[in-house]
Structures are given as C-alpha cells and as structure tokens.
TrEMBL record:
Single GO term (MF): metalloendopeptidase activity
GO cellular component: plasma membrane
Record-given protein name: ATP-dependent zinc metalloprotease FtsH
Species whose genome carries this gene: Tistlia consotensis USBA 355
Entry's family note: In the central section; belongs to the AAA ATPase family. In the C-terminal section; belongs to the peptidase M41 family.
Domain AAA+ ATPase: 49-188
Amino acid sequence: GRSRKIESQDAPKVRFADVAGQDNAKREVAELLEFLRDPERYRKVGAEVPHGILLEGPPGTGKTLLARALAGEAQVPFFHMSASEFIEVFVGVGASRVRQLFDQAKKAAPSIIFIDELDSVGRVRGAGFGGGHDEREQTLNQILAEMDGFEGHEAVVVLAATNRPDVLDPALLRPGRFDRHITLELPDLGAREAILRVHCQAVPLADDVDLRKIAAGTPGFSGADLKNLVNEAAMAAAREDVSKVTAKHFDEMRDRILMGSLRTMAIQD
Ligand code: ATP
C-alpha cells in the first residue's frame, strides 16, 4: 500500500501571540528560541541545551499550538509525529519510522520534533495492556535510543505532549531524555477572555457581546473548547443569515456544549 509520510513542514505561521494566556509555559519555551535561532553561539562555547521537553496538561490547553508557535517564532521546520498513530498505522515498522523521523529532523536542523500523545507509546513497559505490546515497546525503545544518541551540539529540540504524565515510563524522564517539564493549565478567567479574543479576531461581534462575561460563564473550558464555542456561535449566526454574532448565539451554543459534555459524562458512568 501507499506508505504514509511523517508530517514535516516548513516553519509554521503560528506565533506566540496566537497562544493566549499560558504565560509561564510561553516563558519557558521561549528560552529555546535563542538556541534554535543561533545554535552556533551555543556550540562554540560548549553549552549543552536540553533536547527533550515534556509538555503536560489537560486536552485542548494548547500544547500542540505552543510547539508550533515555537517553530514559527524560530522559523525552523516542524516534524510532527502522533505516537498513537505510530503504533496503529505502522505495524511492524514503528521503530524504523522513529529513526527516519529523527534522521530527517537532524538533516533539517535547526528543527523541532513534536511527539503528540507520548503516553500512548510511553506507558510503563511491561504493564501489559493487550495486543501490539511488542510493537509499542520497540517504538518506545527507539525513541529512548534516539534521545540518547544526540550529540550535544545537534540543534534538534524534541517536544513531547501528554495529558497523562503519571503513566509515563520513568525511563523517558531520565536526564538527557525528557528531563524538562512544562505544565499547561486550564485557562483562568482572564486567560479565557484572552483566548476568546484571539479566536474572535475575524468574527464580527454585535454590541451586546461581552467577552469577559462569556469567559465568566465558561469555567472549566479549555482553549480548544473556547475556540469551538466561537465557531459554533458564528455557525449559528450564519444559519440565521445575520451579519453579526450576538450574545444569544454565544449563550445558546455554550448551553449546548455544556449539555453535550454532561451527556458524555453520563454515558461514561
Ligand atoms: P491535546 O492534548 O488534545 O492534543 P493540545 O493541548 O495539544 O490538546 P491544541 O491542539 O494545541 O491542544 O489546541 C487545540 C486548539 O485550541 C488550538 O489549535 C487553538 O486553536 C485552540 N487553543 C488551545 N489553547 C489555546 C490558547 N492558549 N490560546 C489560543 N488558542 C488555543
């Protein structure tokens, strides 16, 4: 069959300004920016910059977005690998795909590798969870080998994301591997307002729309949820064929999203 390629691309267009809130995480990630922009400055004085950074936090808090923004700010290529896809799609070749990914990124250095859902391959080994076990272990072992195989001066930063840092194999967290951790939190009131503002940039809002008020009415919403809310409200306005999105559109869609998540919770019970 047709072999699937690792998603590689030129530097993304996303910038830190597109990531609302998450000030701590942005500050920590920004330290890598200098290095990616001018690795030679670090190499010539023998400074070793950390290669592996773990981004942890609930779904939809902007881990992928932040990784892309770092690549966009540094103007370096971004290699994206979804760990779950690696075991599902590349049966029997997970390890060699990992090797390919790292080789490509090294050739393109300075560059960024982003591994999504690290926990899906990176769970504690030997914890037996059904089929594909060996496959998963081989893929994980290859990731560990690649992390150990970096030369100090190689300008490849590996960011990995997880919302289950508690289940990760401790081998992943050893020095020289994913030894720096950055936590992204669900947004607080101010951050929710800032996220709404980012996603409303291209949306014509009626005068009765108060983003602060919407932020106050959406505790527990992630950045992804808020983005979805803005889009649902805009869709509702489009269905009515009106030229502005009103407070009513936001209220109705928020309620619908809340009902939907309540329903999912009931099903899970
Ligand atoms: P997952 O763990 O589910 O993969 P994630 O933490 O990687 O989630 P993203 O994929 O980065 O989350 O977020 C999804 C989308 O939600 C982003 O593309 C962005 O549009 C929006 N979003 C999330 N967080 C923010 C934020 N802090 N500022 C602006 N937009 C955000």
